[in-house]
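for ur thesis appendix - RNA polymerase sigma-70 factor (ECF subfamily). copy paste whatever u need, i formatted it the way the template wanted (i think)
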Amino acid sequence: MSEVFSARTVDTAAEATEGSDLARARDGDDAAFTRLVAPLRRELHAHCYRMLGSTHDADDALQDALLRAWRGLARFEGRSSLRSWLYTVATHTCLDTVERRGRRALPIDLGPSSDRAVLGDTPLNDVAWLGPYPDAGLAGGLAGPEARYEQREAVELAFVAALQHLPGNQRAALLLFEVLGFSVAEIATTMDTSTASVNSALQRARTIVAEKVPSRTQQQTLREIDDARLREIVAGFSAALESGDADALVALLTEDVTWSMPPLAHWYHGLEAVTDFAVRVPLTGCGSWRHAPTGANGQPAVGCYLWNDDAGAYLAWSVNVLTLRGEHVAEITSFVGPDYFTPFGLPASLP
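the 3d part is after this line
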């Protein structure tokens, strides 16, 4: 009984503090506003990433959304929670970005796979590429009872990539309903439309996502692999690249494995094509590698570092996100570029 009373006391105190900070923020106290939004920043940032497919765009969108919220706080009448209102502001901010920039892509969206290694492949810098999301940025969130996707499932690469094939309004409706647990009526209010329009958007969005997302999520797969075995798989992948051991690498892969490397357009499908690429490029054609384990999009990942003679160090090269099927690697997505390392808290170089 005392524990229940204590919890109620804490909740009441928190509500009083929030109410006090809200009043202060409305009077122009930016420190009070910062305190109000601080507990929600991580989940709002993840929402912006799901909408936009880029941590950089999510950074910008969240900053813009919070600025809009700060300037428009007087319009918040308290008929919904502050969290719901902030999601409304963030969603509209993301929709503005989607309208300006369009969707983000992976190499698989641009054309067929290559049967053999393409040497001297050059980056396509005019394409808006999907990017990885650091697991450290994920928060549990406060999804409502109708939410179907877990918070980590909702940042898996396959799901975020599928979202990019949806128009902005369908993307927003699906995320608000299936990930965050907003009701259809709440979404209609958020998006200034009718419940019929929301239901129609949800139906179309579900159809497209179901066609593109595997029925089995990575979270379901990972729950069946104990942590020690998962570390072995990641360590084996890294060791095979570092030692140039093609046989060890192939032993980790599925027969229908894919390997893509945005911003490079060419990608590879099937064990023969992936092996040819691996042998001719990372295993023998690039130089010496080192790796650091990390987590991205709720999936195992490694930061890959390539030796640079001029620097006398291993420099950040790519963040490789691994998609597993059973205890084998079914997809390797190598996000090439040192800029990806900072959000993961990975160093720019290794000695």
